[in-house]
Amino acid sequence: MSVVALRPAEYRAPVFDLKQVVTELAGVRQRWRESQRRSTEPGGRELPSREALAHIIDSLRGVLFPMRLGPADLRQESEDFYVGHTLDSVLHALLVQVRLELQYAVRHQPYQDALGIDTDAVKLVHDFSRELPSIRGLLDADVLAAFEGDPAARSVDEVLLCYPGILAMIHHRLAHHLYVLGVPLLARIVAELAHGQTGIDIHPGASIGAGLFIDHGTGVVIGETAIIGQRVRIYQAVTLGAKSFPVDESGKPLKGQPRHPIVEDEVVIYAGATVLGRVTIGRRASIGGNVWVTHDVAAGAHITQARSQHDAVGG
Amino acid sequence: MSVVALRPAEYRAPVFDLKQVVTELAGVRQRWRESQRRSTEPGGRELPSREALAHIIDSLRGVLFPMRLGPADLRQESEDFYVGHTLDSVLHALLVQVRLELQYAVRHQPYQDALGIDTDAVKLVHDFSRELPSIRGLLDADVLAAFEGDPAARSVDEVLLCYPGILAMIHHRLAHHLYVLGVPLLARIVAELAHGQTGIDIHPGASIGAGLFIDHGTGVVIGETAIIGQRVRIYQAVTLGAKSFPVDESGKPLKGQPRHPIVEDEVVIYAGATVLGRVTIGRRASIGGNVWVTHDVAAGAHITQARSQHDAVGG
Amino acid sequence: MSVVALRPAEYRAPVFDLKQVVTELAGVRQRWRESQRRSTEPGGRELPSREALAHIIDSLRGVLFPMRLGPADLRQESEDFYVGHTLDSVLHALLVQVRLELQYAVRHQPYQDALGIDTDAVKLVHDFSRELPSIRGLLDADVLAAFEGDPAARSVDEVLLCYPGILAMIHHRLAHHLYVLGVPLLARIVAELAHGQTGIDIHPGASIGAGLFIDHGTGVVIGETAIIGQRVRIYQAVTLGAKSFPVDESGKPLKGQPRHPIVEDEVVIYAGATVLGRVTIGRRASIGGNVWVTHDVAAGAHITQARSQHDAVGG
Amino acid sequence: MSVVALRPAEYRAPVFDLKQVVTELAGVRQRWRESQRRSTEPGGRELPSREALAHIIDSLRGVLFPMRLGPADLRQESEDFYVGHTLDSVLHALLVQVRLELQYAVRHQPYQDALGIDTDAVKLVHDFSRELPSIRGLLDADVLAAFEGDPAARSVDEVLLCYPGILAMIHHRLAHHLYVLGVPLLARIVAELAHGQTGIDIHPGASIGAGLFIDHGTGVVIGETAIIGQRVRIYQAVTLGAKSFPVDESGKPLKGQPRHPIVEDEVVIYAGATVLGRVTIGRRASIGGNVWVTHDVAAGAHITQARSQHDAVGG
Amino acid sequence: MSVVALRPAEYRAPVFDLKQVVTELAGVRQRWRESQRRSTEPGGRELPSREALAHIIDSLRGVLFPMRLGPADLRQESEDFYVGHTLDSVLHALLVQVRLELQYAVRHQPYQDALGIDTDAVKLVHDFSRELPSIRGLLDADVLAAFEGDPAARSVDEVLLCYPGILAMIHHRLAHHLYVLGVPLLARIVAELAHGQTGIDIHPGASIGAGLFIDHGTGVVIGETAIIGQRVRIYQAVTLGAKSFPVDESGKPLKGQPRHPIVEDEVVIYAGATVLGRVTIGRRASIGGNVWVTHDVAAGAHITQARSQHDAVGG
Amino acid sequence: MSVVALRPAEYRAPVFDLKQVVTELAGVRQRWRESQRRSTEPGGRELPSREALAHIIDSLRGVLFPMRLGPADLRQESEDFYVGHTLDSVLHALLVQVRLELQYAVRHQPYQDALGIDTDAVKLVHDFSRELPSIRGLLDADVLAAFEGDPAARSVDEVLLCYPGILAMIHHRLAHHLYVLGVPLLARIVAELAHGQTGIDIHPGASIGAGLFIDHGTGVVIGETAIIGQRVRIYQAVTLGAKSFPVDESGKPLKGQPRHPIVEDEVVIYAGATVLGRVTIGRRASIGGNVWVTHDVAAGAHITQARSQHDAVGG
Q1: Fewest C-beta atoms under 10 Å: which of B82, B95, E98, E273?
Q2: Nearest chain D residue (CA) to C119
Q3: B313: domain CATH number?
Q4: From the list C14, C82, C92, which residue is nearest E85 (CB)?
């Protein structure tokens, strides 16, 4: 940090081979674009923005729970002004991202029906907005489920403010709706934002009933075609995964096939348990910690490992 | 992005049903408040702020380790000025959050002793501040334990700067003190901030001796009533959990009962092991990777799975 | 929040024992420095900065993938300007951090060859920059591997934008290069930045071939001396760890010994599997979910748990 | 910037006499407080904040002119949500500043009626808010006056966006209202914020009718007790000042005496003119450039300098 | 700040008449829109953004003078990368603002030729960009003129970094080009940004030759149709204004008529001088401090006030 | 903003001649560097940073007046911590800027004594810091002078917070000290920061005694070699300038010659007055508004314009 002597005549400022590296990087980009048959014509970014979606979700959290996740200086008597203003702003920001995904989806078509994309995007965002009240209702049920299911929980507000499982469900319920409406890439980005913050990886395609409580959550994986009923409880490191992939004639995995479990109402799955394939866990069944399940489980059954009869793992 | 034609007369700017959605969201909030018997009177936010606490903890990390986690331009000869100024600012910021939690705790009482809350909050923050030097001492022991326990560690400074287990312990030791002093919601927020960054979920109620080393850490869960001795070592995905919850007459979980393990001095618990219930792992015992424990383990014992005798898992 | 009465004469503003706490904190710092034989002379920060490296890696992500991870308003026809300008800025920022680590490494020597450190740092950053094109090439292979390996993936761009396994590999391939060039502390910070965001903990020392696909990823641990071939697939919670540490005469772990697995080309390791020690998993072998391996596995072999023959776990 | 040689043993990091300077600065502060009979007891800041007021005024500009000075992404159909939310936030922020000034005003009194201050502050902010619609009406008249008075103006929107005279009037009309309501320090800060940006110095005490147009504006000074009618036009560097101050027995200036001009409706005062003392410029009179006036001017009169008959100065 | 007593039952949080004020503000907006025949249909902002232009000009200053007004960490060997990247970004940002003004200009027409506006905007920005090198050349002449004209100037770099006259000329030369290309509102905003910072008010329509030196500058006003030659020197508070406005039949000022002075090469105008109307100040003439000129001045003449023969005012 | 039709095949994204403009800008930079004999070798920025100095001055304002211009949450009992920490940080930031100017001053010398520059810079900053207490003392006198001189001033705190004359004097007293210590470029930047905010242009070379009150201030110009005594009062638009420049044999202005007025103690100079050349305004003299002075004025004399006997201009 300190210069303590004569700077000699032969001293040279550090210089890097910028032009060489820039050229080589352009070359490797060019090879990628050719191999992926991408356009190399002038033009701007085609892809939605992770940062924009992070901001959108953050605002929607405030819209859904204004006095608890909204701005610190909000007052109850003026909630509606805040909700209306924020919603207006956030829906138009979402519209931009929806347009980007819809355009991206048809990027290989020679003519693009810009008017059609525009109309579709507006309708999609409109439909999304109309679902927000029912999403809030589902999330209220999730909060109550966590409060009732965790002896360490002191209040519903602590649950909403602190529990990573709730943060994951806020993201999931918004992401799932985007997925259903036809913007799976936006949905996936929203899901991964929660995965990064909580370690809970729920594919936006998963269908989840009211009152899901995910405790601790780190390492939970829920696959794309999983179906979960009401009032289900899941602990950390539980996997609801696929057993093997159906493949097409050329050996490539078939996309979109049902391949993850169906979990019926009021099931409890303890930490580290693994449930694989399109199996059904019947209503009120429980799956013990670290148990490995690849077949259907009857309603009301309690599955545990031989070594640890009667034990169940809660944090 | 480009406008390429006449804008026709029938063109309409996108308009969403803002008023309808705002009204419906107000309705669902109203139903929640009624069901939770919340006030619907005018007034501001009642809950502590996650962002404020994140800022407070960040400043306290600088106060505790000024030359390593403080500002980049700090110099050793002026550390005390920095520590004093930051501490002053951070204690008053904490005071605001403590007041919010204390007021929240009595929110259902018709009259609130504002003077009493004020006095309690000042005393609480004062007591918290007096404990900081001993917290720094405990954390120094944690850093040394990590340095000595990991063959990949090159220096104590690398440990402090990089290891998620240390970040989790800084948060825990501050959070635990807040928990003991009577602000469990603040404590929980502080703990979840670390959980989100490290995947290490330590309930602030857990009591932990000097020199805990958590390696890798992702998926570690330590429950509210766990007690951990000195110089303990824990690897990733270890659970110190509850076996089952004592319930009250109405079947609701009894809150605050001892239900998590006691881990004595110098125990080592390898990756993926699960210890459940109020059991005691005796001094210098070791628990092998993925092992499942629901009974006491004698001091000095080495528990492994049948399939993997003599193996232990370190990263 | 509201002052609603006379402020009585005896009212006192809250005052904390700032000077006392500052003095005690100085005392505990002093004890640490003495016990660690640290300098207590005047002077500035000696350690690299986590924030600076986070910014550097963020910029390098844009340099490597300008149209997808660079600024939202970038256009293809002017990529090279952006790449060149950002690279220039980021290499000089890296130079500052490299100097800090090289100086830190010789901090106990009475005379420091400032000219030598300067020359070494410039050469190191120069060498690092020349490797960027080949790092981009490796990452393109990783992206393709994820796209082909996951039935839920819809496009290579979704993979690059969303998949935590790709984020972890971008960090790892940059960190590994820093590790090889001789700045292991910087490398470790870069690795932990990814660990914090993804739950994937890859030591920068690990050597990894082209086309690694880590799915879901939370809880994956890959040790310092692990060697991974080409086109390998790894699921969440897989550990490639050490069995036991070789120790020196005084019982301290020997640092830098090969102690983690070798995983050959096209191996698949399913969720929760644990592979320990310097064992070799042969080409095209597969390791089933939750399996525990401490011995070599032959090429092409399929290892599963007795309880779950023929099953493999994918998310 | 570059270290190019051995750092010699005698090298010392730069150290400044921090403690000495800190102590001397404390001494000079102490002397000031004693000479001004200020409290030296513990306690926080007593004074309103310039930054807070800058933010408040900026928000009020958006409240008054939402589609032109509000956020870029606002839409006409949701203006009211924005206006309501911003107003709620800004009035509570203003309440904090008003309380600070009211408390400051009674800082020398032994007991402070906190409840009374609180009630007064709420009433003051309430009254302020009720005046906003009529302030907007006055400002609309100012904008029209500028548009009609300047041959270079192309639209009323250009005037609102660009003209420093309009910015000064927005500040003045808000500041004057604060002044009338009893918080002259806040008013003065608001006025100086405009002075700093425009070079137009209007004391918040000045009373100004609808439709004032100040062209160019730099150097304009309008004193505390000036009274200006409707549709007046003023050019750069005009002073409406005091001739001499009435003094009290001890020779100190008497505060609050009428000592600045009265300017009646539709007067025009050209650049650089100086009008001093409690004189009246009659309706429709005009004062030529650089003219010096210390006596009443009759309605309809045109005052010019001998050297420049019939000339008037416009920019 | 401190709550020191029981909060009594009758306490009420402060509530303002938000809905009333919002409604009244909507009413006054409605009246304005009707009187100005503005659209009250749904839709977004129609006007360019002052903040966007401030950012654009700031970037262009870096593009024009990269090593002196560009980023602090720029290096000479990589200037072109910075210039190219910044220019690309800034031209597209300018394109957005140009479109807004061109659309605004035709806002009253029933059909808008969106394709035509788009084409015009692209061409305009293209032409603007091609002029940047010659603008830099003119500004180099301005810098040299200031250095040579001010005995207090120590280097050309001090002039570029510090002199408000240079800042005003950078803004003016960019603004004038926008004015000539047909976006006078953008041009005016750029000019007012400089006016706010320097007190120098140059209308973007003014035509100014190379090497203008404005010393001190506060209070200088240069009108829309002024024409200034090469190497002219102007001191603070000089006005080049209009004497009177030509009016049309209805008495409204005719817009766009030549009404400001012509100042030929190498003229010097000292502080406070006022030159009014379409007069010509001949080559190498000088106008003394505070002098008032409304007629032509011959080349080489020296005009002073009687009271102050032979004196000239420099700062 | 809206895409409403098919995007036709012939559509092209807007593309500008980036490479052409970049090349031409490089050409004009090259010509400038050659004409100014500047280095075209690789290397970083040589000049101090306006932004860095703005930040430094802002921090020094807090150091000098902690409870009034420091952070809003500061408390009196912990002022010294704040002052010490901020001072430490700001002096090292200033050291960086001082080094840049000292290196710049010798940039044309073939060998640069880096050790010497370093030593000089440290000494200069040290000397600067030791003067801060006396600067605070002078500013306290300025504040009192303004409070006593302005009938509109309500408190000394209003003066410190609001009066542009005080802001200008804070900058000037710091800038003057930098000027005296040998870094005139830094000094000039500090002065221009105040000029931009207040319209008051005081050259840092000017020597000013305690208790100067500049009222309103816009347009005031005080030249480099001016000398002002104690308790002087100056109104807006006053110039203390040079009459003509002494030139050297080649006709270039001689730099550094005394050429501005000497103003003795307790002089008052009213608005718009102009004093030119090395004249002396004797103790307690007053100069009337708009008066033009180019000769000495005797102590106690009152100079006014013929047309306006006995009048003086105050705001």
Answers
A1: B95
A2: D4
A3: 2.160.10.10
A4: C82
Residue C143 lies in a domain: yes
Instruction: Please judge whether A118 and F15 are an interchain contact, meaning their C-beta atoms are less than 8 angstroms apart.
Output: no
C248 CA: distance to closest CA in chain E (Å):
48
**Which of E6, E92, E103 is the mutation pick for testing B, counting most B CBs within 10 A?**
E6
On average, the pLDDT of chain C sits at 88
- Examine the pLDDT at B113 and tell me if it is beyond 90: no
Of the residues E1, E4, E7, E118, the best mutation for testing chain B's interface (the one with the most B CB atoms within 10 Å of its CB) is E7
Both F148 and F166 in one domain: the answer is: yes
Q: Indicate whether F163 and F60 sit together in one domain.
A: yes
Q: Name the A residues in 154-213 with CB < 8 Å from any C CB.
A: 184-185, 188-189, 191-192, 195-196, 199, 201, 203, 205
The answer to whether ipTM exceeds 0.95 is no
Q: Tokens in use for C48?
A: 């690299």
Least Cα distance to C215 among B238, A242, A35 occurs for A242
CA B288 to the chain's CA centroid: 26
Same-domain pairing of B178 and B218: no
Task: Please check whether residue F29 touches E, CB under 8 A.
Answer: yes
Q: How many CB pairs under 8 A join E and F?
A: 177
- For residue B12, tell me if it sits in a domain: no
Domain finish residue from E198, E226, E249: E198
- C118·D7 Cβ contact <8 A: no
Rounded Cα gap, residues D241 and D277, in angstroms: 6
Evaluate whether residue D266 is within a structural domain.
yes
> Do residues C236 and A221 make contact, with C-beta atoms less than 8 angstroms apart?
yes
Count of CB pairs separated by less than 8 Å, C with F:
14
Q: How far is CA B101 from the centre of its chain?
A: 17
pLDDT of residue E246: 67
The sign of the CA dihedral B138, B140, B143, B148 is negative
Domain count, chain D: 2
Q: Smallest CA–CA separation between E253 and chain D, in Å?
A: 6
Do residues B274 and B213 both lie within one domain?
Answer: yes
pLDDT surpassing 90 at residue B213:
yes
pLDDT at C111: 63
Q: The tokens 């005719």 sit on which residue?
A: E254
Span B90-109, pLDDT tens digits: 999 999 999 999 999 887 77
Same domain flag for D58 and D152: yes
The mean pLDDT of B211-220, rounded to a whole number, is: 97
Orientation angle between helical segments B79-105 and C18-35, nearest 10 degrees: 120
- CB D285, CB D311: distance < 8 Å: no
Q: Which residue has the higher pLDDT, D306 or F313?
A: D306
**Are E186 and E59 in a shared domain?**
yes
**The domain boundary residue, chosen from A157, A175, A198:** A198
The residue segments making up the domain with residue D158 are: 47-198
Q: How far apart are CA E271 and CA E313, in angstroms?
A: 6
Q: Check if the beta carbon of residue B232 is closer than 8 Å to that of residue B248.
A: no
pLDDT in tens, B67-90: 999 998 899 888 999 999 999 999
Alpha carbon B41 to its chain centroid, in Å, reads 33
Query: Which residue among F68, F158, F216 places its CB closest to the CB of D201?
Result: F216
CATH at residue B118: 1.10.3130.10
Picking from A121, A132, A69, the residue whose alpha carbon sits closest to that of residue A93 is A121
| Chain A residues within an 8 Å CB radius of F3 | 114-115, 117-118
Task: Name which of B2, B111, B118 is nearest E3 (Cβ-Cβ).
Answer: B118
Same domain as F188, residue F58: yes
Contact: B136, C257; criterion CB under 8 Å: no
Rounded CA-CA distance D137/D133 in Å is 6
- Whether residue F93 is predicted with pLDDT greater than 80 in this model: the reply is yes
Residues C65, C185 within the same domain: yes
- Residue B15 in any domain: the answer is no
Nearest CA-CA distance, residue C7 and chain B, Å: 11
